[in-house]
Amino acid sequence: MILNYRVKYCFLWLTLIAILVIVSPTYSTKARSYLLNKRQCTMKRQHQLEMLMARTAPVGNESRERFPESFEQLQKYCQRLARILAQTETFFKDCYDKTVRDYANILIYTSKRNMKKYCSKKQTRFVAEMLKLAPCANRHVRNNPVPIKCYDRFINETTQLIGIENDNLKIPHACCNSMVLLKCAEEFMYSIPCLQKHTPMLLDYFRTGTSSISDIMCGEYNDQTDSCMRLGKAPKPVKKLKQIKYVTPMALLIDLMESIHNVTSSPTLQFK
């Protein structure tokens, strides 16, 4: 959506959730690896895919794009997004085990659903509204440090969860961190005069687009309950973490899952 490609396209981000994309220093530790031992399945290939996402995003240090301001620009932009999504789908299908594939399938389905509305073949009322907002976004959002600070906070605080001792707290706190990110995005959009009256529509688009993955991953830990308030602050990490760089939330979410020794036993991560 308008704030960034995670907000706009459901985290081709959130790991493909997300949901705001820059290169920022973070940390990682491995409890196990979900990446399959195949010739074509390498961290280098994953990094190349993330860089494609980052460069196609209209916001971020690696961005090479602007928000489309015409229907013709939008069609070309959507074609590029569709190609990246197809490559992402193939990579997860070929290179990760069932645990990660289950999440990827939900994320990809959600992204396709979101893109279907934004990347319409016809200029619908919603598309017209988004195109009308694009010049404002290109002037006030693309190079604004506030969204980057919001995202940095989300990345840094979620990264620290990898090293905490209680695996059952990792996903709930990550979900609550995403709620803080959403609130930060909301406050920022309301601060931009040409976005103010459209902010409820944009937030609704984001919530609708991420509802599937949020319902499965987060359960009660959302912005409609007080569960995050009752959860309190996350424990401090007990493990020493190695410094690495992420270019999208995708690798961070995978690392967080890999740090959970028994992912399917987590109360918020149950697949049938």
TrEMBL record:
Protein's name according to its UniProt entry: DUF19 domain-containing protein
